[in-house]
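Final paragraph of the annual report: two paired records, presented back to back.
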Amino acid sequence: MDNIIKEKFNNIKHTLSYKGIGHRNPLITQDFGADPYAIVYKDRVYVYMTHDILMHNQDGEIIDNTYQDINKLKVISSSDLVNWTDHGDIHVGGLGGASKWARCSWAPAVAWCEIDGEDKFFIYFSNSGSGIGVLTGDSPIGPFRDELGKPLIDRNTPNVKDVVWIFDPAVLVDDDGKAYLYFGGGLPEGKNEWPNTARVIELGPDMMSTVGEAVVIEAPYMFESSGINKIADSYYYSYCSNFTSRAEATGDHVPLAGEIITMKSSSPFGPWSYMGSILKNPEHFFGTGGNNHHCMIEFGGRYFMFYHTSVLQDAMGIKGGYRCTFINEALVEAGKIKPIIANKSGVDQLMPFNPYKETEAVTMSNNAGIKTYEVNEDVHGKKVYLGSTKDGDWISISQVDFGEKGPDSLTLCFASQGDGGAVRISLDSLDGDSIAYVDISDTKGLDNFVEVTVPVSQVTGVHDIYFTFLDGEYLLDYWKFNEKK
């Protein structure tokens, strides 16, 4: 049987990836993801993104992204910042969404805190530019519910009626347990230099109410994309500068267009001291610009900046404002965030990957051709599976540490119908040494999952591994190498 399966992979043509081998940016290529916001929970980073979707005209041609049909958020997570697990979508607005009153879900901000002895998670989302809603859940991937049933922030919120765009939130849970929401944007006519459309407001202890009125943040040339960080005893507010002319501007508070700007304060409400640019517009690095949206976190004693670019759509050969998420390290020295260098290399993997734990099949460092599938499941909300579309599709896992003993077998969980398919696992490249083959036999239905264990060739130490797929109607749930006794 093994020889028959091996022959099926002879002369196979591998699907081309949208990111180069060795590149760690964008984080994922199986979907778009914009306006990233990241949190750290139990030694893992979760990234929440606006789920851009391709828009088409009546002739089926791709058109510019208007964002008006976006009502889902994309969630991924990682413990090493290179291998990312796809947790699928959070359905926010529209039919079947958690928020029946909302049409859109843009630019999420996420926080978690302990309430009544339990960890609770809160997603603050933009209903286009007209208001901000909040979802709550008991885990970082949901399921999420809208307990408020209406916007948390809108034009009836004290001192918000003059904000042009009520969107792009950022949230901070301070050391004393108090929480603050930052938001706003847009340009009132004739106020390009001082729009005064950014706001901060205190959240109630339930994280779903507000305390007092919103306070104006005087941010020069502010446009959108609020960010907030506390470093030591200082607060750093950040935002994207607007694209208006600087022809007659003077002073040391005049940023270039579309850059991420920081200001510093000793209070979450300000006043703020202008610090300057920390991230140039993506056009500076990649040749294609657009809006600039960001989030910075601390993880493992280091700082990392998440932001979006148009690199994925460029690799796909399309245009229209469809975004993907990148990550690069941010350095903080002497109380100042240094300018960040954006690139496709991304960040170094923080730790080797453990192959001896059960790993969801939708975990990958790179891929080509694959698709993910969501299946609704009782109290857990949903399950995300990996599916292949044609011969030569593949995923990779970076820096897998097999240790000194190595494995003697591999267990793969899948469901299949019809002719099934097959999987080949190779080392260090798509054409590298093959260490295992799995025959995907018919399980009589895509809801009937089975475990199959196959032998593995001798392998020790650290390697990248590649799963290459043959065409078939099947779903992969998880895999695990079994260490030699």
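The closing record of the year follows.
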Amino acid sequence: MSEAEALRSALAAYDLDEADLALLDGAEGTPAEPGETSIGTLAIVGRPNVGKSTLVNRVIGRRQAVVQDTPGVTRDRVSYPAEWAGRQFAVVDTGGWEIDVAGIHAAVAEQAELAISLADAAVLVVDTTVGATDTDQGMVELLRRSGKPVVLAANKVDDQRGEADAAALWNLGLGEPFPVSALHGRGVGDLLDAAVAALEAAAGGGEKLTDAPGVRRVALVGRPNVGKSSLLNRLAGAERAVVDPLAGTTRDPVDELVQLDGRPWRLVDTAGIRRHVARTSGADFYASLRTQAALERAEVAVALIDAGQPISEQDVRILQLVEESGRALVVALNKWDLVDEDRRYYLEREVEKDLAPWAWAPRVNISALTGRRVDRLVGALDTVLAAWDRRIPTGQLNSFLGEVVAATPHPVRSGKQPRILFATQAASRPPRFVLFASGFLEAPYRRFLERCLRENFDFTGTPLQLSVRVREKRKR
């Protein structure tokens, strides 16, 4: 009988509940995610504040896209999976397109034009209460040049009285305008029937919704204006996300399938996380919630920190959020091209002091703007994901902990010394260990055991979850 089997049989003398027995009988696995088949990509386009994001939320059946009664809330092109009449497709929300704009508005318009070029079909949203404007006419010309099938949505038709105004949009020359109310859902079914028919007729020439098996999901997180969108553009090799000196440019999580080191990766650029979500309002509040949701869907997070600025309370809070979510972690000190010798000295002191709780996470010094050392991110991601997936055999785990406890036993408290009876790894992704003990293990000793596990089994870049179940001997 092995040491682990002997320890396991010794537990029979202790009071164990059904949850304990289920845990001991087998470790939980991580189910694979089923794939999906997409018929194509549908771009939702139009000028600012016509209700594109509201329509996207109606199509996907949940409040996912940020909506606010202010023009210009959506800035990037953002893709969401959708389904209608048994057909899977991707719907892309875009920023408002305008004629002859400059600065960030020009970048937003470029993203909308790129969304049209990559889509299989488009839905042009027009505000029926305002009627067709010069900007709408310009968008019609752009859509005609693209050669893509177009469905015209006459939005904000809340009742029959607005249908006459919708009929006036025949003048745009795009065919039948579908009167809809994205806010209330009126007429959206007929619009989707036409949109799905357009996608099927296009025979799927655009970007596809699904990822191949084994594609790892990476969330780029950090406070506003640390360079997350710049890093996404650098890794994607294209201007995929809107970049502007204005803090908080990104509001919706922007995802992109990119090739790094010859392998596909799903990168998600998120909105900058504010200090306290409860203190934000409007679009920033919902953007923060969506950033946290994007982190939950990811496997690993690259936490960007502005190396040219002092490490802030926000940076620390973001690292805490990643650890609490159980995601693997890589710390990227961005804007390294702006760091001089004096700043480097103080930065090292700040890292030692403020980032000490995350010393287990690998650190990469990069410049998303110049591309300096960005290629090192792939190696760091491979390392932390391997640790995140790692599972330790029960016999090896108990043998190792037995040696550690023999060399450094738990301190005696009130004349009693708790013993570790048995240990098992309950799960991976992240690794979670359960220790059965005869008494309470104090927090410093649990941290000591966690540090020993990290060093011996190379859990670089992944949080470890260590729980203790105190069990007493069964009374005779």
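The CA atoms of residues 156 and 181 lie 5 Å apart. This concludes the annual technical report; the extension proposal builds directly on these records.
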